[in-house]
Write a structure and sequence with these properties.
Oligomer: single chain
Number of helices: 5
Shape: globular
Helix content: 25-40%
Order of helices and strands: HHEEEEHEHH
Length: about 160
């Protein structure tokens, strides 16, 4: 309808807020890790080895891990050298991984996200507006696997 078209036109004309543009100046890469055992009954139907996902961000100061657990979000800056091979550490620990990615630019949205905070929602939010749609960790892993290397500014 005309009202929806007008709202979409207005939304597309918005510029990202200053706080969104500041993050574009910082060089960082995002790694996503997939794994986990079923420690909650509602996780049992999910694919084994893909019941949880979390992210690590690498920048000039080192590594920051964002791990959404049931009922809380853990954000930890690890006291590691920025050159430490954290993806290799998690790979040797048995996790599947995707990355590194650089987030896509911020984009205005017409509506807020429909789902609450889940591990997949957090990882998608870190990747930015161009992140693939997924509900489960395995769905996100599979969709990131099938994307071209230029998706989300993937560093090759």
């Amino acid at each position: 309808s005309a009202g929806l078209a007008a709202a979409r036109l207005w939304l597309c004309s918005l510029k990202p807020r200053f706080s969104h543009t500041r993050t574009d100046e910082v060089q960082h890469s995002i790694w996503l890790f997939f794994g986990g055992r079923a420690d909650q009954p509602w996780l049992y139907p999910l694919k084994r080895g893909f019941r949880h996902c979390f992210a690590a961000i690498q920048d000039a100061q080192g590594w920051t891990v964002l791990d959404p657990l049931s009922g809380r979000l853990i954000v930890a800056h690890l006291p590691l050298d920025p050159d430490f091979d954290l993806p290799g550490f998690y790979r040797r620990a048995g996790f599947h991984l995707r990355g590194p990615f650089t987030p896509s630019p911020a984009a205005p949205r017409l509506l807020p996200p429909f789902f609450g905070l889940s591990c997949v929602a957090l990882c998608r939010a870190l990747l930015g507006a161009d992140a693939p749609r997924a509900v489960t960790p395995f769905g996100l892993y599979r969709r990131l696997q099938n994307r071209p290397t230029i998706f989300l500014g993937k560093i090759s």
